[in-house]
Design brief:
CATH topology: Transcriptional Co-activator pc4, Chain A
CATH class: Mainly Beta
Number of helices: 1
Protein name: PC4/YdbC family ssDNA-binding protein
Radius of gyration: 15 Å
Strand content: 35-45%
Oligomer: single chain
Number of strands: 4
CATH architecture: Roll
Distance between the termini: 43 Å
Shape: flat
Length: 78
């Protein structure tokens, strides 16, 4: 794929769940529910700028994956 063939990624933060880690730069690592390209919202962990216009690479989790992570953490008594 050529660079000019790439379409813009569209996102909408449906729910801001919370800041995991603030940075002195004003960016924050956050857990949010985000809809990517009009798809159903998924749990999303990534760094965001203060205006939520720019972001780093992150990880997106389906609700069933998030439930599994929570179960695994509960078993470890974190």
């Amino acid at each position: 794929m050529h660079d000019n063939d790439r379409s813009e990624i569209v996102f909408e933060i449906k729910e801001r769940i919370g800041v995991i880690k603030p940075y002195p730069t004003g960016w924050n690592r956050e857990l949010n529910l985000v809809s990517w390209n009009g798809n159903p919202a998924k749990y999303d962990i990534r760094d965001w700028d203060p205006d939520h216009e720019h972001m780093s690479r992150g990880i997106t989790l389906h609700p069933s994956e998030m439930r599994k992570i929570l179960l695994l953490l509960k078993e470890r008594d974190v």
